[in-house]
Specification:
- It catalyses: ATP + protein L-histidine = ADP + protein N-phospho-L-histidine.
- Its EC number is 2.7.13.3.
- It comes from Streptomyces purpurascens.
- This is histidine kinase.
- InterPro entries: HAMP_dom (IPR003660), HATPase_C_sf (IPR036890), HATPase_dom (IPR003594), His_kinase_dom (IPR005467), HisK_dim/P_dom (IPR003661), HisK_dim/P_sf (IPR036097), Sig_transdc_His_kin-like_C (IPR004358).
- About 50% of the residues lie in helices and about 15% in strands.
- By secondary structure, it is an alpha+beta fold.
- The protein has 3 domains: about 10-170, Beta-Lactamase, CATH 3.30.450; about 230-325, Helix Hairpins (Orthogonal Bundle); about 330-485, 2-Layer Sandwich (Heat Shock Protein 90).
- Helix 4 runs parallel beside helix 5.
- The chain is rod-shaped and about 165 Å long.
- Mean pLDDT is about 80; it is low at about 430-435 and about 480-485.
Length: about 475
Amino acid sequence: MFPRPRGLRTRLVVAFALVAALTAATTGALSFREARTGVLQQSQDTVIKLLRTQVDRLAPQLSFPPGEAELRRFAADVARAEPSGNWRVLVAYEGLSATSLPDDSFDELTPGLREAVDTSPATVFQRVNTGDHTSLVVGMSVTFAGEENRGIASGVQVFLTVPQATEQRYVDALVTAVERATVPALGVAVLLALLAARGVLRPVRALRHATRSIAEGRLDTRLAVNGSDELADLSHTFNETAAALEESVAELRGMEARARRFAADVSHELRTPLAAMAAVTDVLDEDAARLDPDTATAVRLISEETVKLARLVDDLMEISRFDAGAAVLHLDEIDLAESLRRTLADRAWAGLVDADLPPPDAVRGRVDPRRLDVVVANLVGNALRHGARPVRLRLRAGGERSAVIEVLDSGPGIPEDVLPHVFERFYKSDTARTRTEGSGLGLAITAENVRVHGGSVRAANRPEGGAVFTVELPLRRDEPARGEHL
C-alpha cells in the first residue's frame, strides 16, 4: 500500500497528474485506435480493390475446366499486380490448387476463411498473426463475366496474402507519437497543478497564519478578501467571526476588570470597619465570661464570624493583587525545612502533622518566605479540615535546582469530577469531602503563590486512599535579594 499524501499541495499535484495521465491515456488510446483502424482500413481497401480489378481482368482468359498449369499461370499473373512483389496468391478449383510461388504452403489461409469463401460470393478478408508479423489474407470467388452467366460462381477461388509490415511501421510510429505526447502532457499537468495549488494554498496559508495569530491573542487580525469564490467567502466568514470574537472578548475583559475592581474596592472599604469590629469583639471576648450564657454565646458567634469575614477580606485583597499583576516576590535564601517547621509550630500543628523533613540546610534556595508559609499553611490546613489524620508533610530535593513539597492526608480522597477544579476560585462541591466555612479561595491563592515562583502545584488521589497535593518550586540561588513585581 502506498502512503496517502497528506499535504494539500501534494494531493492537488497528484490529483492533477492522475487526471492528466488518465486523460492522456484515454485520448491516446482512442486516437491510436482510430488511426490504426484508418491505416489498416485504407490498406485493406486498396488491396481488395486492386485484387478484384486484376482478377476481373484476367478471369476471361481462363478456360474451363482449368488445369493445374493454367491455375499456376493465373496465380502468377494475379501476383504481378503488386509491383513490390509482396503478394502471394493461391488459386483453387475443385480439387486442384496452385500458388504464385513454387511449393508455397500458404499457411496463413485458415479453414474459417476458406469456408467463408465457399458460402459467400462477397470478398472476405482476415488478419492473421503468424508469430513475428501480421498478414492480410483476402479470399474471393471468380464469377463468369458473360451476359448469360454474369454473376454466377465459376468455381475458381482466389486467395491472397500480403504482409502488413508497412502498416505495422505506421502503427508503431503512432504508438511512439502517443508516448512522446503523454510525457509533455503530464509535465504540463503537474505545472498547472502547482499553479492551481499555489492559488489555492495562498489564502489557506493566510488563513492558517491568521488563525494562529488569533490563538496568540491578536484578535484584530483580519484577512484580505479577494474575488468571489468559496475561498473569498471563507475569508469573509473568518473576518466576521474574528470581529465577533474580538467584541465578545473585549466585553468579557471589561466585565472581568470591573468585577476585579469591584472586589478590590469592596475589600479595601471593608478593612476599616472590620478592624473596628475586630477591636470591639476582642473587648467583648474578654468580658464574655461575665455575661449571661445567651449573650456570651452571641458574642462568641459574632467574634468567630468577624474573624472569618476578616480572613475572607484578606483573601480577596490577595487575589486582587494577583489579578492586577501587583504581586511582589521578596526573595531570601532560606532553609526550606526550617521554614516548614516554623509554619507548623506557629499554627500549633506540630502534634497534628507528621513532618518528614530533611536535615537542616539540606534543601536551601531563594524563595519568598511569606508566600511559602501561605502555600504550606493552606495545604496543611486544607488536609486537616477536609481529610483525615494522619496528615503528612514531606520535603525533598527534586533536583539540583528544585524542591518538592507534598501534603498527604488519609481521608476519602477527592472525587474524580472535582479534581480538575480544586484550584478554581470559590469552587465547592457537595460531594467533595466535608463542607466547611472556608472562603473557597485558599487553594486558588496557593496556586497563584506557586505560579509567581515559577513552580507548579497539582492534586491527586493516593492508591491507598486519601489525597496528595504536590508543589514543585524552582530554587534560585545565584540572584541578589530583591522584590519582583509579577
